[in-house]
Amino acid sequence: MTGASLYPRLEPLLAQIQKPIQYVGGELNAQVKPWDDAAVHWALMYPDAYEVGLPNQGLMILYEVLNERPDALAERSYAVWPDLAALMRQTGVPQFTVDGHRAVREFDLLGVSFATELGYTNLLEALDLAGVPILAKDRDETHPVVVAGGHAAFNPEPVSDFVDAAVLGDGEQAVGDITDVVKAWKAQGRPGGREELLARLARVDGVYVPRFYAVSYGPDGAIAAVTRTRDDVPARIGKRTVMDLDEWPYPKTPLVPLAESVHERMSVEIFRGCTRGCRFCQAGMITRPVRERTITGIGSMVDQGLKATGYEEVGLLSLSSADHSEIGQLAKELADRYEGTNTSLSLPSTRVDAFNVTLANELSRNGRRSGLTFAPEGGSERIRRVINKTVSKEDLVRTVTTAYANGWRQVKLYFMCGLPTETDEDVLEIADLAVEVIKAGREASGQKDIRCTVSIGGFVPKPHTPFQWASQASADTIDHRLRVLRQKINEDRRIGRSIGLRYHDGKPGVIEGLLSRGDRRVGRVIERVWRDGGKFDGWSEHFSFDRWTTAAEEELAPFGVDLDWFTTRERTEHEILPWDHLDAGLDKEWLWEDWQEALSEEEVADCRWTPCYDCGVCPTMGTEIQIGPTGRSLLPLTVV
């Protein structure tokens, strides 16, 4: 029977693997709807392990939005670990959902949310386990339509051979439109087969169907042109933007994991978008404009979510949560509301210039005083001007000194290595900064038991940012700079032992760079890596740099390009980039000008508080910045 549970076949396998609980389903607030009651069936996949995928806000929101529709159902699927995958292949158990343990192959749509490009091999593994052809051209109307979403969908070209469609931008309304199209096509008797269905989807705002666009290349290896193969699909695909987030208060009933996950808290997105203009930040660029939830909207979501989950921590999420125009009032009123309970509030990484101790005290009033995380991103003031992260050393030292003086003992500082124009000296200033933080903290607190953790990630240039033209630093360059940084930190052991240094080597970042700025030719590399055993590339114990470099060398050579061509090569102004036909609203000329300003170390202000500087998003997308103050206040909760 279609939609039947695979659990009787799966259960005997679970006793033979590690962490079987992640596959059993039945979480608090999970849903299993009758299969025959729904006209359209969605399998929503996060292409990583359950512990990483379950807390993902995007997937959780779409899960609720779709399941609220009486004519649709949505179930979740995650990447299965190699131990279970091997048993599934031996016994013929296909890729399944964790809700109803139904075969993914039987769903109408497989929606895959990519937060990172290193999940691409997991998509191929899931398709193969599901019994779905990994190449889109080999599928027919009996196979699910594979739809990519998430930030990586803004350049889906490297996986264009494997996905049928990609959704650009916010998904809440887009998944509803897609559902309507599939429902109508099925009700009409599936006219025209899969080709007609995809043509209809290609006409939905924000939906890109790669098969209807042909790419040609010039003798230098660069793209010569991207052209439509049908006149009834758009030449340029624009992103979707949800306005008035108070009308979309999701998730209302967040999922509570059965197994340990990376975030054990209830999360509320307090605003979407960012206009700080950090030049490295793809998320900030592609999610413009800023759209704030109101205090009352946030308060309602927190109240409902806590009642639905039993969590004792609420994360107030956004790209820069302390930038909410009413964050001080919001934190105080939430702390007032839950005073005397075990409910605590938390912010993710906080900008130095947006932090104050009054805010931090409100956040920790009802809970433990945990560490604070700040993200200066660049080690020197010069490199911070390049990346438009306008924070001075004095600002940082003053802020962390105030935190230490008010009872905090642990501060985490996040930096990047390999930024455009960066030198060894820029990176070594990270050590100087950390030493000053420890010294100032000891003096302010009168204590020796304070710590500063320095966490460093390798910079990867991303599409739709001013750095999309930049040369990426090689793995050897990254590793060299991390090595000299560690030596500098350890020069004075009396202070160095209070500084923790966390980093990854430069090799995974090179592959992420290949996948983030690659074109369709890179698909051959991904397939080769997967066929050679590659999966879970975001996990250091599974990642093989040699496997990727070998595949890139052999698969790209026929095209006259190589790994360095996609990574360490700087692009020219008028080069056609693989994602130029995918519109995030940002004017390409403005991005280029901002790239030139970066090279000149010029800073750009936040357009929330200054006149518009013509990035192009609002007029192109028909949107506008939505910020407070609203003048609203939270009312005390009524005890029933």
Automatic annotation (TrEMBL):
Q: Where is each Radical SAM core domain found?
A: 260-502
Give the signal peptide, or none: none
Q: Which domain of life is it from?
A: Bacteria
InterPro entries linked: CHP03960_rSAM (IPR023862), Elp3/MiaA/NifB-like_rSAM (IPR006638), Radical_SAM_N2 (IPR045784), rSAM (IPR007197), rSAM_horseshoe (IPR023404), rSAM_sf (IPR058240)
Q: Which PANTHER family match?
A: RADICAL SAM DOMAIN PROTEIN, SLL1084 PROTEIN
Can you name this protein?
TIGR03960 family B12-binding radical SAM protein
User: Could you tell me which species this protein originates from?
Assistant: Blastococcus jejuensis
